[in-house]
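ok, trying the design again with the full structure, not the truncated one.
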């Protein structure tokens, strides 16, 4: 018989796809696992039971979470729901504003921030500006492109046929404008045209070919001309798709009717898009033209301005950007999600974005050798985990990318590019996660639990989800404040010990044993299954695990299956009436029985109890029948 000692020192490949069970030659096979659920992977290689979720507040309904950093001391959480914005500071709601976006429109809302101003856009809604006012109040208002003299400095474009002419009835005052081809709708009232280089404002709709207008600057003549344009952003032609700040310019990426066009404001004058005479500090405008459709889905200011479109990724260069030296170059042909806005995030100098197919997370990274960007697929070995992403954000403290799926589950990617670590795990909670947001050093989720929507926060001190904690000066059995969990069966940790589960009724529970401190919330289960031995090691022969040594750190419970079902493996001798102590060290477990199914893992860890668990390494002694 052959005896094998297998040592697993890390999980830095994460949960890998079952399609890799025949690829024992890969490094990912050595460092990966068949299943890692509800676990965070340390960049150093160990795995730990994920943090629990602390309950913060009820939300108005489904929506999206956005971070708004006013300064290093004040970072707000924005909860965007149907026609409403709620703002939280240190988990307390401090403001509530009426918003223009319906629930159906929220997935397409894009945003960017500069200092104390948050800009928010949607292709069907006038763009908004959120600012914090003196005294701590907030104001949500429309962008203004008007100068102090009343002139419009937003972009203009001729949407009608190039040969469609227009005839003004006069050069000053109130006039009538008549076009050759039908060009107008009632929504044109209140918008502006640039005619012969001069501005006129439409004051009344007459017919598809005729409107009333007010001349703001005297026209050159009343002769028919094809030299006329409409303002780009309006109820007629829609509004910006995406925004970013880059090199002291406001950059607008696409609009509803011009989805492949980029506009750069004048340097230092963020709402001035007047092209002027092409001086270095004046506005810039151009379209992305190529052999494929390039609807802009997002723009990101990194080493260069990065433009993510429906069919490709682009780089805009120029140092500094000026009308004469700006260059646009296509880098890769991946494409971004088109049905919603999923913000690209920066990680160690790379930009992570969701591919259009909804099955890939790509790392958009500039390489000095090639002087170009590459788009590496970070989910290649864990394709089964990436399924229809709807939101993402990056937590630099934990080095975790959080990705929310359409089915309500969420995944995390431990990423540390310097050490070539890219490890995925999948997470589940009772309910459906809808959005994620990193605010400073805090990670928030918007979760649908039953009929309510809750705002929750990852907390390393919690071992349950949607949890509440409480203290009382004397031991008590009655604990309330749980109305968000009405009808739910909750787990309970009281004075450090697990008590029987209870069903919340009327926002309260009654303990079986009085306690001074409690944590009450929804349970979740963490699972670890290693990959089976590679086919080159066993060659279809029977095998059995003789012994496994688990190196644990700060662990209270080990629930292990070595082929005889899940069993609780005692770690430290603890009196029955005392909380379980934390164990750090090696735990040896012997196993019995031969195993004929070579693709079945040799062991499995599965734990629902809300107790601490961290696994650093595993050593297994295996015998193979020759």
């Amino acid at each position: 018989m052959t005896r094998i000692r297998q040592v697993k020192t890390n999980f830095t490949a994460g949960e890998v796809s079952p399609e890799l069970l025949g690829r024992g030659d890969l490094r990912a096979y050595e460092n990966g696992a068949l299943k890692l659920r509800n676990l965070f992977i340390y960049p150093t290689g160990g795995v730990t039971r994920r943090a629990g979720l602390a309950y913060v507040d009820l939300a108005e309904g489904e929506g999206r979470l956005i971070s708004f950093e006013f300064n290093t001391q004040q970072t707000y959480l924005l909860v965007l729901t149907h026609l409403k914005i709620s703002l939280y500071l240190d988990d307390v709601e401090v403001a509530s504003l009426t918003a223009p976006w319906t629930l159906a429109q929220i997935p397409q809302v894009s945003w960017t921030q500069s200092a104390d101003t948050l800009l928010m856009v949607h292709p069907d809604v006038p763009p908004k500006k959120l600012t914090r006012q003196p005294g701590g109040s907030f104001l949500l208002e429309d962008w203004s492109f008007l100068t102090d003299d009343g002139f419009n400095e937003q972009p203009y474009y001729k949407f009608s046929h190039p040969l469609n002419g227009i005839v003004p009835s006069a050069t000053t005052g109130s006039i009538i404008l008549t076009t050759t081809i039908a060009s107008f709708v009632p929504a044109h009232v209140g918008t502006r045209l640039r005619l012969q280089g001069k501005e006129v404002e439409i004051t009344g709709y007459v017919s598809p070919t005729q409107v009333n207008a007010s001349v703001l600057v005297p026209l050159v003549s009343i002769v028919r001309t094809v030299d006329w344009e409409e303002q780009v952003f309006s109820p007629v032609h829609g509004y910006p798709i995406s925004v970013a700040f880059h090199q002291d310019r406001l950059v607008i990426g696409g609009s509803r009717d011009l989805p492949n066009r980029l506009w750069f404001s004048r340097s230092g004058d963020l709402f001035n898009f007047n092209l002027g005479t092409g001086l270095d500090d004046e506005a810039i405008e151009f379209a992305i033209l190529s052999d494929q459709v390039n609807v802009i889905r997002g723009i990101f200011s990194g080493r260069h301005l990065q433009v993510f479109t429906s069919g490709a990724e682009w780089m805009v260069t120029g140092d500094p950007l000026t009308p004469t030296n700006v260059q646009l170059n296509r880098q890769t042909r991946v494409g971004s999600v088109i049905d919603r806005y999923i913000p690209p995030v920066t990680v160690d100098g790379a930009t992570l974005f969701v591919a259009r197919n909804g099955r890939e997370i790509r790392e958009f990274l500039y390489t000095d050798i090639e002087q170009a960007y590459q788009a590496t697929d970070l989910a290649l070995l864990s394709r089964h985990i990436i399924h229809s992403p709807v939101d993402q954000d990056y937590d630099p403290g934990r080095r975790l990318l959080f990705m929310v799926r359409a089915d309500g589950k969420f995944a995390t990617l431990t990423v540390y590019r310097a050490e070539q670590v890219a490890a995925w795990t999948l997470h589940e909670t009772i309910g459906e996660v809808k959005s994620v947001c990193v605010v400073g050093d805090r990670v928030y989720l918007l979760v649908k639990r039953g009929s309510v929507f809750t705002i929750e926060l990852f907390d390393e001190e919690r071992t349950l989800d949607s949890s509440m904690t409480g203290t009382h000066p004397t031991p008590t059995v009655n604990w309330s404040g749980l109305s968000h969990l009405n009808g739910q069966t909750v787990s309970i940790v009281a004075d450090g010990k697990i008590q029987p589960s209870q069903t919340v009724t009327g926002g309260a529970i009654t303990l079986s044993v009085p306690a001074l401190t409690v944590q009450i919330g929804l349970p979740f289960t963490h699972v670890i299954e290693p990959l089976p031995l590679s086919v080159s090691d066993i060659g279809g022969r029977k095998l059995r695990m003789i012994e496994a040594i688990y190196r644990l750190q700060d662990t209270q419970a080990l629930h292990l299956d070595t082929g005889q079902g899940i069993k609780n493996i005692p770690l430290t001798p603890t009196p029955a009436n005392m909380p379980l102590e934390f164990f750090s060290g090696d735990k040896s477990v012997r196993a019995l029985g031969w195993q004929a199914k070579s693709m079945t893992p040799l062991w499995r860890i599965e734990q629902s109890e809300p107790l601490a668990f961290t696994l650093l390494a595993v050593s297994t002694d295996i015998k193979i029948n020759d």
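Keeping the full-length input from now on. The mean pLDDT is 94.
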